[in-house]
Every structure is written in structure tokens, then in C-alpha cells.
Amino acid sequence: MLKLVIGNKNYSSWSMRPWVLMRHFGLPFTEIKLRFDFGADSDFYRELAAFTPAGRVPVLVDEEFPVWDTLAIVEHVAELLPAHPVWPADSNARARARSLCAEMHAGFSALRQHLPMNIEAQLPDVGARVLAEQPGVQRDLKRIVEMWSDALQASGGPFLFGDFGAADAYYSPVVARLRTYALPVPPALQAYGDRVWASPGVAAWVAAALAEKDFLDFEEPYRSAPG
Fold it and tell me: What is the spatial distance between Cα 18 and Cα 206, in angstroms, rounded to a whole number?
């Protein structure tokens, strides 16, 4: 049985990516959720050390063999599910999907810094202010609009490369940010985001995040209490 070690669902965008992908395709796994606490000697780090030397979630444990880093986990999942469209069947589309995931993995630092994932929150005023004040966030959003538009036009939808796959799972935390901060995107991309939000794996993650009710002040730059 596979085990997936994750952090808090409301905040952990990296954990969200492999979880929704595995859930979408019905790959059985046991979830091990560690409550975020980044103190030097915290329970979070002590428990995580039993699974990975990297000190970060997520971690996929397959027959006691740990796989960390989301890109490595997604590739491992693709190997476990060769009959499913984790990656597109066409080689060019597959390369483009991997490129989009790699760009998400390595970039968009302004979006991450100023608009952290917070599924439970509704912060449209914060989104408007940050977008007006932070050129880096403007550039990140513009790039996301370009990538999504190009992929949807090439594939014809309904997801980035036709069927729901790794790229959609990878950008599901961005969809969450669009909703939390009411970031403006063209109607076709808003509709794409709605389809991602309603997809089985993402919907299950969101429902669990909303039920979590675990307010962590160090993850909350814009709120002092829920609500």
C-alpha cells in the first residue's frame, strides 16, 4: 500500500498536487497528515524525518521506499498508472505538459510569496491590492494566462491537455489562489478553473481543507483569525 505524507490541506500547495492526482485516478493510498510546525525541534520535523531526509512534504512511500519532490512523485505515479493519462499520449504534448509543470515547480516566486494558498479564506481586497502593488505578481499572472490559454487552444480542452492530468493537478493550487484572491483572468480560463475545482480529486481535497479548521498564524499574513 502506498503512503502519502502531506501537510495541512488548507495551506500545503505542494502536498495538494500529488494527492489530487492520485485521488483523481483512483490510486489507493494511505494519507499521513503532519500538522505544520516549523520550529527547529517540532513534532512536524521529528515525524517527517522517519520518511525523508529532505525535511519537506509531500513524500510518497511505496513499499517503504520514499519518493520526495513533487515532480519525482508525479513521474512515479505515472509509472504506476501506465493506462491512465497522467501525461498526454502525444510526445510533443507530453513534453509541453512536463515543461509547464517544471516551470511551476521552479518559478512564480512572487505569486507564492504574496498570495500563499489559503483555501478557507476569501480575500478579494488583498488580491486587488497585491496585484496593483506587486509587478512580480502581475508578471506571474500574465504568464499563467499565456500558458493556460495556449494549452487549452492547442488541446481543445476541457483540461490543459485534453483529459485531466499532471499539469492540471500541478496548477490546482493556482486555481485555489485565483478563487481566494479573486484574481482576474479571461472568462475561458475562469471556466477552466471551475472545471478543475469540480474535478473529483480537487473537490475532495477542497472539502477536506474546509473541514480542517486549523488556523496557523504563521501561514496567515493577511488574517489574525478565521473568517
Answer: 14
Amino acid at 175: V
- Residue 144 has what pLDDT? 98
Residue 108: give its domain's CATH number. Answer: 1.20.1050.10
The range of the structural domain enclosing residue 73 comes to 2-84
pLDDT tens, 46-63?
A: 999 999 999 999 999 999
Task: At 37, list the grid cell.
Answer: 510546525
CATH of the domain at 20: 3.40.30.10
Distance CA 129, CA 181 (A): 10
Upper half-sphere CA count for residue 113 (Cβ side, 13 Å): 11
Predicted confidence (pLDDT) at residue 1 exceeds the cutoff of 90: no
Q: Indicate the DSSP class of residue 54.
A: S
